[in-house]
Amino acid sequence: QVRVAESGGGLVQAGGSLRLSCAASARTFSSYAMGWFRQAPGKEREFVAVNTRSGGSTYYADSVKGRFTVSRDNAKNTVYLQMNSLKPEDTANYYCAAGGTVYSSSSYYPSYWGQGTQVTVSS
Predict the structure, then answer these.
(1) pLDDT of residue 111
(2) d(CA 16, CA 52)
(3) Which residue from 34, 6, 19, 14 is spatially nearest to 90, judged by alpha carbons?
(4) How many C-beta neighbours within 10 Å does residue 108 have?
(5) Residue 81 in contact with residue 94, Cβ under 8 Å?
(6) What pLDDT score does 114 carry?
(7) CA pair distance 123, 121, nearest whole angstrom
(8) Which residue, among 105, 87, 99, has the nearest Cα to 16 in the 3D structure?
(9) Would you say residue 105 has pLDDT above 80?
């Protein structure tokens, strides 16, 4: 069982930046896929980004390419989602995901989920 805990959400103005953090209890963190999903009220959960493993590949949804960046700190068992040039449509509850299978691009099926952290982007 891998515990996943994300944090860093908040309220930010359009065009601003925010960094989300996700700590995972995986014994071999660097080998685990780590990614992000988001869900807005009344909408389906959607894929945001995933890193297959430390030193592996990173894939982003088209809607966030060029604005969001995933990075890892293996010493802290933590993955980050740096969000720049935020837009109101980025408003959602963001969920960290761990493990599971990454096929390619947006095809990520995680094994573990965090509880979510709210990101609100105002106009």
Answers:
(1) 96
(2) 28
(3) 14
(4) 23
(5) yes
(6) 97
(7) 7
(8) 87
(9) no
Here the tokens at position 91 are 């408003």
List of long-range contacts for 41-44, beta carbons under 8 Å, 24+ apart? 43/92
Residues in CB range of 14: below 8 A, 6 or more apart: 86, 87, 88, 121, 122, 123
Three-state DSSP state, 30? helix
Mind listing the pLDDT tens digit for each residue in 8-17? 999 999 999 9
106 vs 82, higher pLDDT: 82
Structure tokens at 4: 């996943």
Tokens 């573990």 correspond to what residue? 112
> Are 81 and 19 contacting, i.e. CB atoms less than 8 angstroms apart?
yes
Are 20 and 7 in contact by the 8 Å Cβ rule? The answer is yes
Percent of the chain with pLDDT strictly greater than 90:
92
Q: What tokens does 13 get?
A: 């103005």
Q: Map tokens 């389906």 to a residue.
A: 44
Q: pLDDT category, 28, cuts 50, 70, 90?
A: confident
3-state SS class at 29 = helix
